[in-house]
Amino acid sequence: MVEIRTAMVEKIAAMQDFALYRDLAWEGSFEDYLQVIRQNPQVTRNAFQRAYDMIIRYGIEEYTDNKKKLIRYNFFKDEQNGGADAVYGLDIPLMRLVHVFKAASEGYGPEKRVILLHGPVGSSKSTIARLLKKGIEHYSSTTDGALYTFDWINLDDVGMAGAESARFKCPMNEEPLRLIPLSWREKAIKELGLSSPQFTVKVDGELDPACRFIFNKLMDKYGGDWSKVMQHVRVRRLLLSEKDRVGIGTFQPKDEKNQDSTELTGDINYRKIAEYGSDSDPRAFNFDGEFNVANRGIVEFIEVLKLDVAFLYDLLGASQEHKIKPKKFAQTDIDEVILGHTNEAEYKKLLSNEFMEALRDRTVKIDIPYITRVSEEQRIYAKDYNAGKIRGKHIAPHTLETAAMWAVLTRLEDPKKHQLTLVQKMKLYDGKTLPGFTQDNIKELRKEAVREGMDGISPRYIQDKISNALVSDRGEGCVNPFMVMNELESGLRHHSLITSDEQRRHYSMLLGLVKQEYEDIVKNEVQRAISADEEAIAKLCANYIDNIKAYTQKERVKNKYTGQDEEPDERLMRSIEEKIDIPDSRKDDFRREIMNYIGALAIEGRQFDFRTNERLQKALELKLFEDQKDSIKLTSLVSAVVDRDTQEKIDVVKNRMIRNYGYCEVCSTDVLNFVASIFARGDVKD
Ligand SMILES: Nc1ncnc2c1ncn2[C@@H]1O[C@H](COP(=O)(O)OP(=O)(O)OP(=O)(O)O)[C@@H](O)[C@H]1O
Ligand SMILES: [Mg+2]
After folding, report:
1. How far, in Å, is the centroid of ligand 1 from the Cα of 251?
2. Burial of 61 (0-12, 13-18, 19+ CB in 10 A)
C-alpha cells in the first residue's frame, strides 16, 4: 500500500515543471536585475503595454466581411482555457477595444482614461473583463510576460517591527527601477544602455510611501550612498494573481454606508499604530485598497457608474494622473489599467448627471452590443449545451438554432427600405444570400440601424430557459425546439426587463416567425431524408434519361415490363422538370442540354452521374419525395395504426435522420410526426 502511494506521488511529481518553477522563483540583487533588463528590456513595460502585448501574442486572423477588412484577435477565443470564456460575434467592438489598448500602450492618451465597456445586460462585458484579468495573470507567469518587483531586507536599523525587519515586501509590487530617484533615472537608464532598438525603457512614478520611508531612512544611515541602500534590495519575479490580490483588483459598488474610500486606496492598520506611534507612519498602513492591489495589472470596476460620488475623485485621479491619495499620505503613483463596465440604463443616468460629467469626459466608451448573427449566437449556447456537457439528455437538432434566431430577431430593427422582412434581414446578416441583395445592401442595412444590438433579449435569458427545458421531465430524455420555445414564451410574462405589453406581444410574434422557420427547416430535412435513397434516384434518373433520349431523337421507348415500344412518357418527364420550374416552353432546351452533356461525356468514355448536375439532382429528389411520400404514407403517421410495410419504410427514413442529421430515436419520431401533421394539414408548397 505504501509503495503504491509513493508511486502515485512520483507520478504527480513528474508532472511538475522544475525549470519553470526555478524561473518563477527567480530572485537576485538590483545589479542582477539590471542584467535581466539588458537582456530583455520588455520586463519594464507598463501595465498597458503588457496588456496589449498579451492580447497580440495569441495572434490574429484577418478576414473580410461585407467588403470590410476585419481582424479577429485569437485571444478572445479563450482557447487557453478550452474556450470557456470565448466571446463570439463581436469582432468589431473587440477591435475597437484592442485599438484603445494599442494607443494606450504607445502613450497616445487612452492610458489616462477609464476604459468603459458599455452595453445591454448580458452582452459579455464581464466576460471580456474576466478574460483580460485571466490573460494578464497567466502572461505574468510566462517568459515573455515576466515582470519584477522587490523586497527590502535587513531593516533592523530602520525600525521595522517583527518579521518585517528581516524582510519587507514592497506593498504595491513596484517596478524595481523606481528605486532610482526620478531626478537621475532617465540618465541612468540611458547610460547603462538598458533600452534596446525595439524597446525604450521608461519607468515613471515614484516609490509608494512605505518604500520611500525605508529608502530615506537607509539613505540617512549610509550618508546618501545609494549603492549601499541597494544592498537592502532583493528583486524577485512578480506573479499576478487575482486570488492572492496581486496585480488584479475588483471593485463593486455596494451600499454606500458600508463602503468608504479605504476600499480603493488602503487603510490605516490600527494595531500597528501602537507599534509605530503615529497614524501617518507609512509602516502602519495597509496598502490593500483595490487600486493598491491592482498596481502593475488591472483594476475592474463593476457597474462603475453606480459609484458613489465620494469615490469619484479617487477614480478620476487614478485615471488622469495615475495617482491615488491614501489617507494621510501624499499622492502615490500607480501603473494599472482601469476597466469599468456598465449597462445601458446606468449610462443614460450618467448622461443627465452633472456630477458625473467629469467622469464621462475621462472615459473611453466601447459599446459591447448583443450578437446579431444567428450562427454566432448559437455558439454561445453550443458552448454550454453540447453532448459532452449534457449527459443523459439529447438536444434535438435546431433547438439551439431556433433559440438563437429568436434572440437575434428581438435585437434587430425593422428594415426601413428594400421591402425586406425581419426574418430575411436576419438571414442576410448571417451570411445567407437572397436574390437581388448585394453586400452593399447589407452594409446599408447595418448602417441605417443605429442602435441595433443594444436592445432585445439577452443570452442569459435564453440560457436560463434552455436549462429549464433540460431539467423538465417532459420529452423522454430529449429536448426539442418546441420545449425551449415554450419556455421562452412563458418566461416573457415574468421577464423583469420587459416593460410594456406591446413589447411582450412583439416578442411573442417573433417566436411565431421562428416556428414558421423551423417548420420549413424540418420539412426540408424530412424531404431530404426520404429522398436520400441513392438507388431509387439512380433508377428514376435512368428512366428519365431514357425518355428524354427518345424524345430528343424522336424515337420510341421500350417498356421494360411489356417489351412493347411506346411513346416517351411526357407526364413523367414534366413531373420531374416542373420541380425545378422548367416551363413548358423551355423543356426542349433543357432536355437537349442534358443529352449534349451526356454525349460529350460518352466521347470521353465516361458515364453520366446525376450528382454532377445539381439542378437535375434536386428535381429528381423532389420527384422521388413526392412519389414516396404517398407510398410511405407519412400522413398515416398521424393516425395510430401503421401497417408493417409502411412502418419499415418509415424506419429507413428515421435511421437516415439519426445517422445523417443528428436526431435520436425520440426526436426523429417527433419530427416525422410533426412534418406528417403539416402535410396532413395540406399546406405543402414545393
Ligand atoms: N458575444 C458573446 N460571446 C460569448 N458569450 C456571450 C456573448 N454575449 C453574452 N455571452 C454569454 O452571456 C452570459 C452573460 O455574459 P456576461 O455576464 O459577461 O454579461 P454582462 O455584459 O457582464 O452582463 P451584465 O450587464 O448583466 O453584467 C455569459 O454566459 C456569456 O458567456
Ligand atoms: Mg456583468
Report:
1. 19
2. exposed
Is any atom of ligand 1 closer than 6 Å to the C-beta of 332? no
Q: Which residues of 571-592 are buried (b: 16+ CB within 10 A; e: fewer)?
A: ebbebbbbbbebeeeebeebbe
How many Å apart are CA 509 and CA 505, to the nearest integer?
A: 6
Nearest to 310 by CA among 254, 372, 235: 254
As a whole number of angstroms, the distance between CA 622 and CA 606 comes to 26
Q: Does any ligand 1 atom lie closer than 6 A to the CB of residue 129?
A: no
**What are the φ and ψ backbone dihedral angles of 70, each rounded to 5 degrees?**
-125, 160
pLDDT, position 685: 44
> Relative to the alpha carbon of 459, which ligand is closest?
1
The pTM (predicted TM-score) of the whole model is 0.85
Closest listed residue to residue 50, CA positions, set 40, 38, 42, 41: 42
Average confidence (pLDDT) over 35-43: 96
Cβ(41)–Cβ(195) under 8 Å?
Answer: yes
pLDDT of residue 333: 96
d(CA 236, CA 233): 10
536 pLDDT tier (thresholds 50, 70, 90): confident
User: In the predicted model, is pLDDT for residue 418 greater than 80?
Assistant: no
Query: Which uninterrupted H or E stretch holds 479?
Result: strand 478-479
Q: Is the pLDDT of residue 683 over 60?
A: no
Q: Is 453 in the pocket of ligand 1 (CB under 6 A)?
A: no
Atom of ligand 1 nearest to the CA of 128: 18
The C-alpha atoms of residue 44 and residue 175 are separated, in whole angstroms, by 7
303 grid coordinates: 457597474
CB of 299 closer than 6 A to ligand 1? no
**Residue type, position 378, single letter:** Q
- Could you give the 3-state DSSP secondary structure of residue 213? helix
Output the pLDDT for position 686. 40
Name which of 121, 203, 52, 635 is nearest 368 in CA terms.
121
Whether residue 110 has its Cβ less than 6 Å from ligand 1: no
Q: Distance, CA 569 to ligand 1 centroid (Å)?
A: 61
